Amino acid sequence: MVKMGNGKGLCISHIGSASLSSATHSTSLRLNDLLLVPDITKNLLSVSKFSRDNNVFFIFYPHSGYVVHQDTKQVLLQGTLKDGLYTFPSLKSSSHYSANSLSFTGNNATINLWHQRFGHCHFKSLKQILSSCNISVKPDLRFCAACARAKCHQFPYPTILTAYIAPFQLVYTDIWGPASVPASNGAIYYEFFS
């Protein structure tokens, strides 16, 4: 589901990837994790993701925009501002991708990747969802470090090799503060001994 600016959600029918020719046709630009949303009226591009995937940066002027290669500083795409959006006329013929022209990631993705895409869904439920959509996945480790960290009540304490044999050699305290109103002596933190 893609959430629009007006709060409405639009369904994603496919996820895939595609490649585009630059203005010079010497460089191929990748569109990874491309979402096919049938009900959307414009083709939109994530500038940060496109920049990261293709080693490029964007330059925006009041009436034009450019995609420039990070290393060579060569202009790969030139666009113009139209109705508040930057458009790239050189891509018009290749900017509408049908489902057949996409290389879908469903069959290439691992169960861990789908687990992340579905917001860290339980693996058993995830398998049911994928099988109901006729999506087969590669076997994987099925261990998610993020889920393990999120389920921890606290991180383990480090191993301490020092032995304490007398009272008050080791004292545990809690500190509270800062207080919005200082104490009569000006203190804004309080220490509690257990």
Radius of gyration: 27 Å
Q: How much helical structure, as a percent, in the residues?
A: 10-25%
Helical segment tally?
4
Strand content: 25-35%
* Uncertain parts: 92-107
Which term fits the overall shape? extended
Strand neighbour order, sheet with most strands: 5-6-7-8
Biggest sheet character: 4 strands, antiparallel
Mean pLDDT: 78
Describe this protein's structure.
- By secondary structure, this protein is an alpha+beta fold.
- It has a domain at 2-101.
- It is 16% helix and 26% strand.
- The protein has helices spanning 47-54, 111-117, 123-132, 145-151, and strands at 2-3, 9-10, 14-21, 28-36, 56-60, 64-69, 75-82, 85-87, 173-176, 190-193.
- β7 (75-82) and β8 form a beta hairpin.
- The protein starts with a strand and ends with a strand.
Topology:
Layout: E1 2-3, E2 9-10, E3 14-21, E4 28-36, H1 47-54, E5 56-60, E6 64-69, E7 75-82, E8 85-87, H2 111-117, H3 123-132, H4 145-151, E9 173-176, E10 190-193
Antiparallel strand pairs: 1-2, 3-4, 5-6, 6-7, 7-8, 9-10
